[in-house]
C-alpha cells in the first residue's frame, strides 16, 4: 500500500528536441509502495518522461528525484535503485533466457552463486522455466516481455518502471502481467506504469496521471477522477444515415459527447436510467430507429474525453489485424 514517503518527485520537468517541446513542465509525486499509472496516447510524452526518470535521457529543464536521488547529479545511485522494462526490450537473441538473467545478475554485482539462484527463482516466477535453456530469438513476444520483466527484477529494485508492458499482448498474457505487477507491489515495490490501456490503469493504479501533448491534464485516484465527471451517459447505436438527426434530438435532452464512431451517439444525462424513456420517446417521435442502447457510468475514457476532447484509442484495431503478440 502507498505510504507518505515519495519514491518519485518531479518538478517542472521538460525535454526539448530541437524546436519541439515533448515534455512541458511536468509535476508529479509518487508515494513509496504505490502503483502509479501514467496514461496517454502514443506521442504524448510518456516514454520521454520515463527515459528521463530512468537516467536514459537528460532533461532540458526542471528536476526530478527517484528513490531519493537526483536523476542528473546522482544518476548512478538512481540506476542502482530502479528496475526498468522498456517497451522495446533489448534482448540478445543468441542467448538463452537463463544466460540472460545470469548475465544481468553479474552486471548488477551479485556473486555467481547468488546470481544463479536469483535467475532460477525469477524464471520460475515469470513462468519461463520450460523455455529457460532455449535461445531468446525463438521466444514469442509475450515470453520476451516476461523475460525482460525478470531481468529488471534481478537486483530487487525499490522502484520498477514499466513502459507499456502489455501493448500488443493478447488478453490472457496481459492479465498475467497484471497479476505479477500486483504481486510485486504487495511485496513493497513501487511501480511506475505507463500505459495507453484505460482498463489497465483503472485495474492496477492507486493514482493516475493523464498526459496529453507533453502536459499533465489530470491527476488523482481513478475513482476521484471518475467522480469529477459526475453524470452517466447513454450510448445509442443509430441506423446509418440518421446520426445527425439523432444528435439534434439528444442535444435537447442532455450534453452530447464526442462520438466513438460513425454510428454511435453519446449523450450525458442528469438522471441516469430515469432519462432513458425520455430519450427513446423523443427519437421514436422523430422517426429515428435505435439499434441498441446502453447506460454507461463514468469511466477513465470519459475522464480522458473531458480533459482532452477526444477518445484514447486502445490498439483494438491491432488485434483484429492480427498484430497481437502471443504469450
Topology:
Elements: E1 6-17, E2 20-31, E3 35-39, H1 46-53, E4 61-66, E5 69-70, H2 75-81, E6 82-85, H3 97-107, H4 112-125, H5 141-152, E7 159-163, H6 171-186, E8 190-195, H7 198-204, E9 207-212, E10 215-220, H8 222-229, E11 233-238, H9 243-250, E12 255-257, E13 264-268, H10 276-285, E14 290-296, H11 300-308, H12 316-320
Parallel strand pairs: 3-8, 3-9, 6-7, 7-8
Antiparallel strand pairs: 1-2, 1-4, 4-5, 9-10, 11-13, 11-14, 12-13
Helix pairs in contact: 3-4, 3-5, 8-11
Largest sheet: 6 strands, mixed
CATH fold-level name of the largest domain: Rossmann fold
Are there runs of 5+ residues with pLDDT below 50, and where? 315-327
The appropriate CATH architecture of the largest domain is 3-Layer(aba) Sandwich
Which percent band covers the strand fraction? 25-35%
Count of domain modules: 2
Radius of gyration: 23 Å
Alpha-carbon distance between the two ends: 29 Å
Order of H and E elements: EEEHEEHEHHHEHEHEEHEHEEHEHH
The number of helices is: 12
Q: How many distinct beta strands? A: 14
Descriptive account of the structure:
The chain is an alpha/beta fold. It has two domains: 216 residues, P-loop containing nucleotide triphosphate hydrolases (Rossmann fold, 3-Layer(aba) Sandwich), CATH 3.40.50.300; 67 residues, Alpha-Beta Plaits. It has twelve helices and 14 strands. The strands form three sheets. It has a six-stranded mixed beta sheet with strand order 6-7-8-3-9-10, sandwiched between helices. Helix 6 links the parallel strand 7 and strand 8. The longest helix is centred in the middle third of the chain and has 16 residues. The C terminus is likely disordered.
Amino acid at each position: 500500500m502507498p505510504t507518505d514517503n515519495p519514491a518519485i518527485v518531479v518538478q517542472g520537468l521538460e525535454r526539448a528536441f530541437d524546436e519541439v517541446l515533448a515534455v512541458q513542465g511536468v509535476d508529479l509525486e509518487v508515494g513509496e509502495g504505490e502503483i502509479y499509472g501514467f496514461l496517454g496516447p502514443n506521442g504524448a510524452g510518456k516514454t520521454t518522461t520515463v527515459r528521463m526518470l530512468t537516467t536514459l535521457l537528460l532533461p532540458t529543464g526542471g528536476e526530478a528525484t527517484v528513490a531519493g536521488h537526483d536523476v542528473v547529479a546522482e544518476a548512478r545511485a538512481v540506476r542502482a535503485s530502479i528496475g526498468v522494462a522498456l517497451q522495446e526490450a533489448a534482448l540478445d537473441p543468441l542467448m538463452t533466457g537463463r544466460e540472460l538473467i545470469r548475465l544481468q545478475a553479474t552486471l548488477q554485482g551479485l556473486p555467481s552463486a547468488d546470481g544463479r539462484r536469483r535467475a532460477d527463482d525469477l524464471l520460475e516466477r515469470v513462468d519461463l522455466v520450460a523455455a529457460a535453456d532455449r535461445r531468446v530469438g525463438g521466444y514469442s513476444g509475450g515470453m520476451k516481455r516476461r523475460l525482460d520483466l525478470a531481468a529488471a527484477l534481478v537486483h530487487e529494485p525499490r522502484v520498477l518502471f514499466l513502459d507499456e508492458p502489455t501493448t500488443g499482448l493478447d488478453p490472457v498474457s496481459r492479465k498475467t502481467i497484471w497479476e505479477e505487477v500486483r504481486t510485486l507491489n504487495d511485496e513493497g515495490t513501487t511501480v511506475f506504469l505507463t500505459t495507453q490501456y484505460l482498463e489497465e490503469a483503472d485495474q492496477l493504479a492507486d493514482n493516475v496521471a493523464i498526459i496529453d501533448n507533453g502536459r499533465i491534464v489530470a491527476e488523482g485516484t481513478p475513482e476521484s477522477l471518475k467522480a469529477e465527471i459526475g453524470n452517466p451517459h447513454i450510448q445509442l447505436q443509430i441506423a446509418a444515415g440518421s446520426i445527425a438527426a439523432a444528435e439534434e434530438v439528444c442535444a435537447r435532452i442532455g450534453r452530447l459527447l464526442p462520438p466513438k464512431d460513425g454510428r454511435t451517439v453519446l449523450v450525458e444525462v442528469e438522471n441516469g436510467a430515469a432519462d432513458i424513456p425520455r430519450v427513446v420517446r423523443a427519437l421514436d417521435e422523430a422517426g429515428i430507429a435505435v439499434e441498441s442502447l446502453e447506460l454507461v457510468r463514468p469511466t477513465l475514457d470519459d475522464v480522458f474525453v473531458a480533459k482532452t476532447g477526444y477518445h484514447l484509442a486502445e490498439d483494438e484495431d491491432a488485434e483484429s489485424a492480427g498484430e497481437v503478440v502471443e504469450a
